[in-house]
Structures are given as C-alpha cells and as structure tokens.
Amino acid sequence: MSPRIELGAAAITLCIVVLVHILLGENASFQIHDNLDSNLVWQKVLIESGEVFGSLKSQVPNIMNGLSRNSFGSEFDLSLIFGLLFGVFNAYLINKIIGMWVAFLGMYWLLKTHVIRGEANHTIQVGVALGFSFLPFWPYGLLSVAGLPL
Fold first, then answer.
1. CA distance 114 to 120
2. Mean pLDDT value of segment 21-36
3. What is the pLDDT of residue 61?
4. What is the pLDDT of residues 68-93, one digit of tens each?
5. How high is the pLDDT of residue 65?
6. Residue 106's closest CA among 132, 124, 127?
C-alpha cells in the first residue's frame, strides 16, 4: 500500500474517533482517569465564579465556603482559556483532539526520521503512531506526554 493511502487511512480513523465525540457531545464516553473529578470541576467552578482574572486575594465562593483564587492555577493556562472561550466541555474536547493529533504526528515523525527509517517500514510507522495517539492522555496536561515524541 502506498504511504499516502496509509496516512490517509490513519487520518480518517482519527477523524472518525473525533467525530464520534463531537456528534455524541456530552453523552460521549470518556475515560475519567483523574480529570473529570478534579480539573474539569475546578475549571468549571472558577469560570462560573467570574474570578478567572480576579486578584489572588479574591474568593471563589463555591468551594469550601470561599477558597482563595490563589489556590487555583494560572489564568494563562491554555485549558482555562479554551474553557472561557468555548465552554468547559468543548475545551475538554479541544484539548483531547489537539493531544491526539499532535501525538500521532509527533510519533510518526519520530519513527520516520530517527527510529524506523525507510519506506519499507511505513506501515509500522503509521500503525505505531496511530496506536500512540489512542492512548488515554491527560487532556489538561495538554502536550506534556502527547508531545514527547516531538
């Protein structure tokens, strides 16, 4: 099979996985692995409180009868900015989609240029990259693990 067809098939596979999450919306199934019970909740409470860009001494009233804004992450966190712009669920989905695509492209590039060189091994390069992109990365870590091959 030609390399273009293999890459096209991998891209279509990634698009189908993403499309399922987009079409099902909030009814889609996500692996929770320590983010839907913490980061998503913190982000939602912070956004709804209106204290995303508040001073460090301001209070976020919905947690522990008023938790200091200083206890939350930076307002310059890309996940939080996505949450402000697109909503908490859409921000989660955007983080997941970016992570999957960067993981695929980064691993494919790493394998092609440094690990498994040559056109004869193209199927292995695409297959391993596709498998790597399906790993359950922590979406709020953005590219911490998904971006390692880059």
1. 15
2. 76
3. 82
4. 888 887 888 888 889 899 988 888 88
5. 82
6. 132
pTM of the model: 0.82
Q: How far is it, in rounded angstroms, from Cα 66 to Cα 79?
A: 23
For residue 59, which phi and psi values (nearest 5 degrees)? -110, 140
Q: Output the pLDDT for position 35.
A: 66
Scan for tokens 């320590």, then name that residue. 34
What does the alpha-carbon distance between residue 33 and residue 51 come to, in Å, rounded to a whole number? 27
DSSP letter string over 41-98? HHHHHHHHHT-TT--TT-EETTSTTSEEGGGS--TT-HHHHHHHHH-HHHHHHHHHHH
CB 4 within 8 A of CB 12: no
Contact 102, 146 (CB under 8 A): yes
Three-state DSSP at 105 gives helix
Secondary structure class of 8 (helix, strand, coil)? helix
- At residue 126, φ and ψ (nearest 5 deg) are -70, -40
The secondary structure of residue 149, as a DSSP letter, is T
Whether 60 has a pLDDT exceeding 70, the answer reads: yes
For 78, the token pair is 């890309």
Backbone Cα Rg of the chain: 19
